[in-house]
# Entry
Amino acid sequence: MAGLYIHIPFCLGKCNYCSFYSTPSLSSIPDFLEALPQEIERNHNQWGPFDTVYMGGGTPSALTLKQLESILTPVQKNFALLPDAEITLEANPGDLDLPLLNGLQGIGINRLNVGIQSFDQKTLDFLGRRHSVGQAVSAIESSRMAGFRNIGFDLIYGIPGQDLDSWHETLNQALNFSPEHLSCYQLTVEDKTPLGQRYRKGEFQLPTEELQHTFFMKTSEWLEEAGYLHYEVSNFAKSLPFTSRHNQKYWNHTPYLGLGPAAHSFKDGKRWWNHSSLNQYLIDLEKGELPIEKRETLTTEQLQLEALFLGLRTRRGISIRDFTRQFHFDLLSERKEIISKLQQEGFLSIQNGCLIPTRAGLAVADSLALI
# Structure
């Protein structure tokens, strides 16, 4: 079943580490809200029912409730959504108060992904987050009061100066709220971000590779001990029903439609993406054109490599039978020696006909695809 992603490219302020496309100005929101339904209408005949809708950004929660409803209304008018569709909103804790949260429930949003990042104020300041620890706690408590029963937190580790004890404390504070989902990302310093510029100037050092590896292994160990499923490199769920149904589409080549500036789409071995420019996005739709920057048709070899790369990032792994049927390539015979070696070294296992990465394998998942 296909998924729908909507990129809402507005932020009240750009975080120091963020490289996703966004604009730190809200003045163009009315123009965006006028253009987006046009993109929706131009796509409605090409797509069947969706069982997930994900509003990301940017900071979707920077919009008012009425503005968010004006996005979902044409979605519901032009596309068939399954009755139990997972409808997710990414949110900054500083935006979430009880009236807004009650309203979000009322317009059909049933899952929140909250950018907590840390429960340490110094870390939040280093990252350039605009919310405080107090606001994070308040947002979580208000979300529960509003009736949300599927809440995910984003957390970042590997912060300069952070040690295992302080990261463990952050995880424990998160666990005190019993989130249904946790995404734990290692800090990545991108060149064109403010943090990247500071790094090039030598203002701080990143953890060593050995420490980064330890952070990853301990995070997995601690959260699994707490009862969470480590189902993808960076993602943990309280139980199988709380895994992100939408994000799994990216990992198993399920079709998805992306709307809004910089959004990507995939269907039938083809991938395309919109301009990473709100201005160009608006111009194209005003001309009656789809705001697509580029398209590509993936070769069988590219799809095969992606299936390896994405599948070995998940604890579901790769079905050997399905892989052979789709690509006419028998991994066990064609890659027998390297697979055997990776098994002996504790990076891979074969269970129920699937090639599955171990915890150690997930730590080096990108390299496993090179088998």
Summary: The domain at 2-251 is CATH 3.80.30.20 (pyruvate-formate lyase- activating enzyme).
